[in-house]
Write a structure and sequence with these properties.
Keywords: Cell membrane, Membrane, Transmembrane, Transmembrane helix
Shape: elongated
Largest sheet: 6 strands, antiparallel
Number of strands: 8
Protein name: Putative inner membrane protein
Radius of gyration: 32 Å
Subcellular location: Cell membrane
Main location: membrane
Helix content: 55-70%
Number of helices: 15
Distance between the termini: 41 Å
Strand content: 5-15%
Order of helices and strands: HEHEHEHHHHHEEEHEHHEHHHH
Number of domains: 2
Organism: Enterobacter cloacae
Length: 388
């Protein structure tokens, strides 16, 4: 009498070889893709895809990457203007060497460069009021130019009138002054005052490297926090406001690392303890680990092929594949535990195949539907689980 639990050699060897070959191919792809891949922790990558008109995508990506490197500070000495506090913060930033560029007060060269930029692009910066005056023949614009010429407070020079007879740049600058009237120049600094009467000095900086480097971003934020503490020791009354995507990216990456270390480890240990307590054997544990590993391998390879990078939130949100992969393994192992003495492994697989395929189909369809959302960052983590 033949043993019902014996594996038919011809029936099992070919699928096993094909499965092993597929896993080896995915492993080879992962090894080839990893050197050029990167771990993205930028929060801007989670925003919906937007383009700046009809410009090339490469230029749009470059603009977003540059925006990702920008940093802005507002330093307040209190209710009395005192540029020494802002100058101290500027000196601390420059000495730290953590930033490629730090700007504080505007010198004469900076103001001239600012004026040259607006002069060069004056036609593209026409304000809505000037556009309205230029309609219907431009008679209203001519009257406005005359009002500027005969005004005792306008200060129109002959050179300005010769170079810009329609005074397009003057109109644009007046509109900017009205929109940004809270900022003004004091001792070369851009200064604003809040409702409580506190003065705030504006500083701008730019990262030296890519904000996608999670370790570099965390070191920078740690350095800036230490510099802020140093500033407080010299000026206890000083206040500092910091803005930049690097702060949000660092917070998100550190939170994601904590989630991975707690939720991921807890989920994995829970699954392993459940298997050991239920089956009292290491073989189901090994099969479950192989199932989870192959799922993670397939999802990672698919994500790198489509995007060339892994977002940190992908790793956090895709931890669900651990439980899903373990569930599929547990279905089969439970069937073998109950009816292993009566049926062969292939017969047990036939009994649970329909249920496993239905569960797999509903899970994949759910993730594929979520791919229709416009957010590219969430699309990254929606690619990994269905492929896994």
């Amino acid at each position: 009498m033949t043993n019902a639990n014996a594996l038919p050699h011809r029936k099992s060897l070919r699928p096993a070889l094909l499965w092993a070959a597929g896993c080896l191919i995915m492993l080879g792809l992962l090894v080839s893709l990893l050197p050029g891949a990167r771990l993205n922790s930028s929060v801007l990558a989670m925003l919906p895809t937007q383009t700046l008109g009809a410009i090339p995508p490469a230029l749009n990506d470059g603009f977003m990457q540059r925006l990702d490197r920008q940093l802005v500070w507002l330093v307040s000495p209190g209710k009395k203007p005192d540029p020494r506090v802002a100058q101290q913060w500027l000196t601390l930033l420059q000495r730290s060497g953590a930033l490629s560029e730090v700007k504080g007060p505007m010198d004469a060269a900076g103001q001239q460069a600012w004026g040259e930029f607006f002069w060069q692009h004056r036609n593209g910066m026409i304000d809505p009021a000037t556009r309205a005056r230029l309609q219907n023949g431009g008679e209203a614009q001519a009257q406005w130019v005359l009002s500027q010429l005969y005004s005792a407070f306008s200060g129109v020079s002959g050179k300005e009138l010769q170079n810009d007879p329609l005074m397009l740049m003057r109109g644009a600058q007046l509109a900017l002054a009205q929109n940004g009237q809270k900022l003004r120049l004091m001792d070369g600094w851009l200064v604003t005052q809040d409702d409580a009467g506190n003065y705030w000095y504006l500083l701008h900086g730019e990262l030296a490297g890519s904000s996608f480097d999670m370790q570099q971003t965390h070191r920078l934020v740690t350095t800036l926090n230490a510099l802020q503490a140093t500033l407080k020791t010299h000026y206890p009354q000083a206040q500092l406001l910091s803005r930049g995507t690097v702060f949000y990216s660092d917070y998100a990456s550190q939170q994601a690392k904590r989630d991975i270390s707690t939720l991921g480890v807890a989920t994995l240990l829970g699954v392993l303890l459940l298997i050991v307590a239920t089956f009292r054997s290491l073989r189901p544990l090994l099969l479950c680990a192989i199932s989870i590993g192959i799922g993670a391998l397939a999802g990672t390879v698919a994500t790198l092929l489509f995007f060339g990078e892994l977002h940190l939130m992908t790793l956090v949100m895709s931890m669900s594949i651990i439980g899903i992969s373990a569930d599929y393994t547990l279905y089969y192992l439970t069937e073998r535990l109950v009816h292993g003495g009566e049926n062969s492994p292939w017969q047990s697989l036939d009994k649970v195949r329909n249920a496993l395929l239905l569960a797999l189909l509903t899970t994949v369809v759910a993730y594929l539907i979520m791919m229709l959302a416009p957010s590219p960052g969430s699309a990254r983590w929606r690619y990994l689980p269905p492929w896994g």
